[in-house]
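agent> fetching stored inputs for the iron/sulfur cluster docking request
agent> found them:
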Amino acid sequence: MIDTKHEIVFHPEKCVGCGLCYKACFVDVIRWDEENKKPVFKYVEDCEHCFYCESVCKRGAIEVKPNYASERLLQHFDRYR
Ligand code: SF4
Ligand code: SF4
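agent> prediction call returned; pasting tokens
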């Protein structure tokens, strides 16, 4: 597994437990904590930095911070060189 050092900052105090971020994530990064009605950012290294979760959260509870120096992210940009 590649350690991408991406970061997703979650502010639980702003979260209202709507589940939209969990539904928006098309990869397996976000899981759902049914007991606490909160997202769990479990596999951050698999994040594709699409910002869907951040943009669907109207409470501003999520900040996606890609590591732009990571090898994996640079591979995406290589396609456009
Ligand atoms: S979209 Fe925002 S408010 Fe809704 S569950 Fe996710 S973090 Fe919480
Ligand atoms: S940025 Fe995209 S891939 Fe990453 S956790 Fe959010 S929805 Fe999932």
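agent> quick read of the result: Residues 71-78 form the longest helix (8 residues).
agent> awaiting further instructions
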